[in-house]
Amino acid sequence: MSSPYIANTNQSEETTSHLPDWREILAILIERMWIGIAVAAVVFAGFFIQLKRTVPYYRSTAVLMVDLQARPILNYQDILMHNRANLEYFNTVVKTLYSRSMLEKAVQDERLAANPDFFPNRLTVAEKAAAAQRFLTIEPVEKSRLIHVTVEHPDPQIASDLANAVARAYIQQQLENRMSASLEAIDWLQDKSEEYRNKLDEGLLALQKYREQNESVSLEEDQNIVIAKLKTLNAALTESQTELIGVRSRRNAVQEQIQKGIPLEELAVQLDDEGLTEALMHLRQQRRKVAQLQQRYKEGWPELQEAVKIEQDLTARLQEACDLAVVALERRYEALVSREEGLQEALKTQEQLSFSLARQLIRYDDLKRNIEADQEIYNAMLEKMKETSISETLPSEMIRLAEEARPAGRPFRPVPVKVLSRGLLLGVVLGLMAIFLLHYMDQRLRRDDEVERLLGVPVLTSLPFIEGESVSERGIYCHLHKTGEVPEAFRTLRTVLQVKPSLKNTQVFLITSTQPGEGKSLVATNLSICFAQDDRKTLLIGADLRRPAYKSTFNVDHMPPGLSEVLKGSASWREVINAELIPGLDILPPGRIPDRPAELIGNSVLDGVMAEIREEYDQVVIDCSPLMGISDALLMMEYADGVLFVVRQGITHRLGARHAMRRIQETDTPCIGALLNGVNLKSLSNYYYYRRYGGYEYRQYYMKPETSDRA
After folding, report:
1. Residue 600 burial class via C-beta count within 10 angstroms: exposed 0-12, middle 13-18, buried 19 and up
2. Cα(432)–Cα(287) distance, rounded to whole angstroms?
3. pLDDT tens-place string over residues 524-569
4. Lowest CB count within 10 Å: 35, 347, 566, 708, which one?
């Protein structure tokens, strides 16, 4: 399991996302938690003070119900009555309730007028009404016929009295308006009824005059008589024409048969006469009798002769009857023709009379309809006059007080819980805004993610802050302490540098920073000690020739000869190596501070020295000067295989670190990664950010057994 201080070494060396993760956000909040708490406390205190200074207001509400079913004066509601159910009428009620005249009428209520606390500074009714308007709110209830008359006032009794007074004033005004409208309606109905009565009389006189002009008591009855006669004549004519058609057909057939010489017997059948039919029957019977006698007797037989004579008489009678029937048929035909002509003449005369009556009835019906319409309107007006005179004394049903306003038991505003909750919420929001504002205004680097996003290199490790120790003890901390968080952090850094595939052949590490005081010498010394403890032949080169930390780190009284003397040619590098301060670690001191360190580092002597050092040592750590404003580190990078950039938590500035990293990138020496130094693991923000596996357990893991048992 990897250490909690080690960055993900497999992470790409490109810049990661600019969005912080939850651990970084939590660390930001904890880091400046007291600022947020202070801002929230100030805001909350401001709301609390304002709550104490605010005058409490009490709310009372009277509820009015609007009856949308109006009582019509006339039956012609679509013409004489507006639709009270529409939105315009409802809004008119609301605006009227809120009008100045309504408030002035409400202010004159006896309860308000007798109350000395009701706007004592206002003398006139108009002034009190104007002042009361500020406390009044009229709100229609959605999807209902209710209107809330709400008053908010510091005095709960005044609030309820004013709300009830406004509601009652409107109801009273509605009643007065309704009574006034009823009286006006009665007057209007009386005038109109008199007008229609005169009009009705004129119509009756005109109708009577028209009857006299046409000499008819009742044109309707005359028309009915004419129509009845027309029906009778039409029926008689139809019957006569039908009979005439039959007689004409039989007459024509008989004449045709006579002209053709058809036997008498067939003609008798065609004439269809009862006497002729009876004579024909007797003749046929006699003929059968003669035929029978002729079969038995001879022609001279008396009985046969008698029978033949009778047959002849019957034949003569049949002829005579046939002639009479033909004459009778002709006479009947002539009679029917004459009758048809008479009926047609009578029908034509009756039709002319009917047309004349119809023309007279047009004017007659028009006069009669006008009289009936005037009579109906006149009767309706008389009825409505009676209804209106009765309804004017009834109470108004259009607006009624559904619920009276009552004095409130507690203030409507301010509500302490809501005000304080709002203050707390606003304080928390402003506190969070202050925390993140200060965080983004603060240009100092504090966490691994910030360093990686800004510099574009991975953070190889986060080195804990060493407190309670002297400068010398901190410089060789890994030599003095075998276990603990700090030694394990440096050992982990050593392991990362050894096992990372791209760093296995890296021999010379150059350690630098942005500016002095960021712990580069501490990191270089303790990392060299860790390399030496791993049985690797290690050399620590003090290459900071301007402000070396050699004396304070190793607690020596004077600066021995070192790198500056070697570069000047006054000493060999092997002669100035110190192998006694730290067992297993060779140290090349910086030597005395030269006048021109950059020129000294840039001469050719260092090329040979570094070539010999590479041949003798497994690991070389160069403690170099900072990058800002000094070129010494850039000159030394030529001899290093990789650069370790030290960033001090809460000290290193963003702009400076970015500029220093840009200078490193301009050289041919790669930057292996950054080291975040001075991480205070006791800080609450760093605790949650870096201690993923818990603080106490991690310390306990690296304690000595006896120490752990005692703990």
Report:
1. buried
2. 148
3. 999 999 999 988 999 999 988 888 888 888 888 888 899 999 988 8
4. 708
Give the CA-trace dihedral at 590, 596, 602, 608, to 10 degrees. Answer: -40
Q: Does residue 680 contact residue 447 with C-beta atoms inside 8 Å?
A: no
Bridge partners of 459, per DSSP, are 674
Which residue in 143, 181, 65, 157 sits closest to 109, CA to CA? 157
Domain boundaries along the sequence of the chain:
219-391, 443-680
Residue type, 225: I
- Contact predicate 415/618, CB 8 Å: no
pLDDT tens digits, 96-138: 777 777 787 887 776 777 777 777 777 687 787 788 888 888 8
Q: Do the Cβ atoms of 329 and 248 come closer than 8 Å? A: no
For 99-137, b where at least 16 C-beta lie within 10 A, e where not — what string? eeebbbbbbebeebeebeebbeeeeeeeebbbebeebbe
CA distance 341 to 350: 14
Contact 464, 679 (CB under 8 A): yes
What is the rounded distance in angstroms from the CA atom of residue 253 to the CA atom of residue 262?
11
Residue 266 corresponds to which amino acid? E
Q: In Å, how far are 10, 154, 202, 278, 323 from 329, measured between CA atoms?
A: 141, 123, 65, 18, 10
Closest of 77, 100, 59, 20 to residue 436, by C-alpha? 20
Structure tokens that stand for 342 in this block: 């008479």
Homologous superfamily of 443-680 in CATH?
A: P-loop containing nucleotide triphosphate hydrolases (3.40.50.300)
Residue among 613, 659, 616, 657 at smallest CA distance from 636: 613
Helices (H), 555-710: 563-568, 597-601, 605-616, 632-636, 654-665, 684-690, 695-702, 705-710
- Strand ranges in 425-561 using DSSP code E only, listed in sequence order: 459-464, 508-513, 538-542
Three-class SS of 230-248 = HHHHHHHHHHHHHHHHHHH
Around Cβ 465, how many Cβ atoms within 10 Å?
19
Interval 681-709 mean pLDDT: 49
Half-sphere exposure for 305 (CA within 13 Å, toward CB)? 4
- Whole-model pTM: value is 0.50
Lowest-confidence region among 54-68, 296-310, 614-628: 296-310
Q: CA 596 to CA 590: how far, in whole Å?
A: 14
Calculate mean pLDDT across residues 165-189. 76
DSSP of 425-460, one letter per residue?
HHHHHHHHHHHHHHHHH--B--SHHHHHHHHSS-EE
Burial (0-12, 13-18, 19+ Cβ within 10 Å), 396: middle
Cα 205 to chain center, whole Å?
Answer: 72
Enumerate residues 6+ apart whose C-beta is below 8 A from 110. none
Q: CATH classification of 219-391 is 2.40.50, yes or no?
A: no
What phi and psi, each to the nearest 5 degrees, are found at residue 285?
-65, -40
Q: Would you state the structure tokens that stand for residue 507, as one six-digit string?
A: 């021999």
